[in-house]
Amino acid sequence: MRTHKKYPVTLTENFKSKLLHWAQQFEEVVWLDSNEHTQAHSKYKAILAVDALTSIKTDAHNAFSKLEEYQTLSKDWLFGYLTYDLKNDIEALSSKNSDFLDFPDLYFFQPKKIFLFSEHEAEIRYLNMVDDEIATDWETISAIDESSNHSSETQNPEIKISLRTSKDSYFEKVHRMLSHIERGDIYEANFCQEFFSEGAVLNPVKSYLHLNEISKAPFATFFKLQDHYLLSASPERYLQRIGKKVISQPIKGTAKRMIDADADTKMIEALMEDPKERSENIMITDLVRNDLSKIAEKGSVTVEELCKVYTFEQVHQLISTISCRVAPSISNIEIIKNTFPMGSMTGAPKISAMKIIEALEDAKRGLYSGAVGYFAPNGDFDFNVIIRSILYNAANNYVSFSVGGAITAKSIPENEYEECLLKAKAMREVLEN
Q1: Per the residue annotation, which of 216, 252, 337, 364 is the catalytic one?
Q2: Entry pTM
Q3: Which of 76, 202, 248, 260 is the residue whose CA sits 20 to 30 A from 291?
């Protein structure tokens, strides 16, 4: 059982910083921030959840059935993540590429303390065992003096970024992927590359705040699991359930922002009309429709938006919104299992694309291109796609970010490489100061 209490508050950047600094005393932290993006399906402006009472941590083997059992038993708020490599629990696939980040394949926790932020208030929901700490915690957070407490925080020492896949190797691998497309093995696949640094020392909160400041993404996330950190500026929703309705919003199609307003408008128009970018998006929209049809009530799968341009701080993106209705008898885990990994990060057909991705990529994806989010006690859930994200293992001082793009028959390897660099820009800026 949880005790509820409400406080009036305006969620300023300063207050967000206070919340994150206060939360660092706990080993388990998740912060989800919409950054004022008012999408049709938004529910909360932001959520903070800390301090696990119970948790589940497992590798891919039987991961979804273990999560189903955990969720059924807890009947409470659960926050956590699904790594891309849970594909191995759904299909006869494997992950053999190098992995220096070492995140567990699946992790969820039942927090003792939750803060749900709406327009003008915070609703605090603490487990009864700690509800006597609500007032003290709120006073402590409010009293944090940002100017004195954190102004002395050092900048990250300069981090030298290395490429896991050389530029020449990237071109060679894209050509191999194009030959798979030509042969008819796949229509499209998302090919990714890792940028990394060993011996890196990172201030996770400062780095996240910097990343968020330059990106202001609608699915921004700070996630801490002991010495493992996710700092995400994700613009993409993977899957949301509200009552009987399930929504997926895949992103495919990217154009850079221009400083000049007229040039920026022209860039939007060019993206809307670009046959290559549109075909990328439409193929994945079709794949998502197919995935949802496995769990949807008959005839309920609907494309609400097709190739709509959404503008972010760094890029313009084409986003489609696909929804369906599900019977109450269909469990949350069944919905996720039938749609995971998300089509925007795999390709079509999905299983063939995943096999080719595994053969050509040089690093295990792990948390990158997985999902982070929550299950609510009423059966609703919401998960993002982990892209535009910095991953950090503080125990072995390894920091990494990955970027990728959809390869189709119309792909020009040089253009795909440029798109990767565009997507990497914000993470690079944060790490290299």
Answers
A1: 252
A2: 0.96
A3: 76
